[in-house]
Design brief:
The complex is a heterodimer of chains A (114) and B (116). Chain A is mostly beta strands. Helices cover 0% and strands 54% of the residues of chain A. Chain B is built from no helices and eleven strands. In chain B, a hairpin with a 2-residue loop joins strand 7 and strand 8. Classes of the chains: A mainly beta (114), B mainly beta (116).
């Protein structure tokens, strides 16, 4: 049962344009959402997060939008840069009694082309 | 920002060997740390939650006698893969977060384990 889904395994964007990565979730108990960037053979790097009391959070080139009614979140990167090429994972957390346990999506490979 | 250090980054050893991987939170205390495993081109799979001063909580299907977890201090958790076999070859990653709600988990750089 995949509670966090990233339906696009890959995305290709031109440098300077906007990258939009999408994520859907099914568990209404999730109340904290995160985006991580990952290069091969490295651990994920935290990018940005949003709690369920907000619908938008912005940090530099990265903005995360949360639509609770649709159980959908998205990460916008603008302008996209070649160094942004990586796998992006969304993750969700809820108070399940197990601490801040994260449930990860399957990832989207972003390629930013020159 | 919060830093998590994982060591070693790569291990190659013979079948039957036990391998210990360390995970340290360098600039914050972590009562809880997490151990993940990643298969090629797959998402991160949570193996267990490491709790300081108490037993780890294992996810369904993860053998606790195979993957021993010790969280002896607020800054160190270890994962020992006992009597490792080729099927245990994988990328293992730990994470930790500062105490409090809505604190992101920060990850170590992972350990590539190869069992010959």
């Amino acid at each position: 049962d995949q509670q966090v889904k990233q339906n696009s395994p890959s995305l290709s964007v031109q440098e300077g344009r906007i990258s939009i990565l999408n994520c859907d979730y099914t568990n209404s108990m999730f109340d904290y959402f995160l985006w991580y960037k990952k290069y091969p053979a490295e651990g994920p790097t935290f990018l940005i997060s949003i709690s369920s009391i907000k619908d938008k959070n912005e940090d530099g080139r990265f903005t995360v939008f949360l639509n609770k009614s649709a159980k959908h979140l998205s990460l916008h990167i603008v302008p996209s840069q070649p160094g942004d090429s990586a796998v992006y994972f969304c993750a969700a957390n809820g108070l399940t009694g197990g601490g801040n346990k994260l449930t990860f999506g399957t990832g989207t490979q972003l390629k930013v082309e020159l | 920002g919060a830093v998590v250090s994982q060591h070693p980054s790569r291990v190659i050893c013979k079948s039957g060997t036990s391998v210990k991987i360390e995970c340290r939170s360098l600039d914050f205390q972590a009562t809880t740390m997490f151990w993940y495993r990643q298969f090629p081109k797959k998402s991160l799979m949570l193996m267990a939650t490491s709790n300081e001063g108490s037993k780890a909580t294992y996810e369904q299907g993860v053998e606790k006698d195979k993957f021993l977890i010790n969280h002896a201090s607020l800054t160190l958790s270890t994962l020992t893969v006992t009597s490792a076999h080729p099927e245990d070859s994988s990328f293992y990653i730990c994470s930790a977060s500062p105490t409090g709600r809505w604190q992101p988990q920060h990850f170590g750089d992972g350990t590539r384990l190869s069992i010959l």
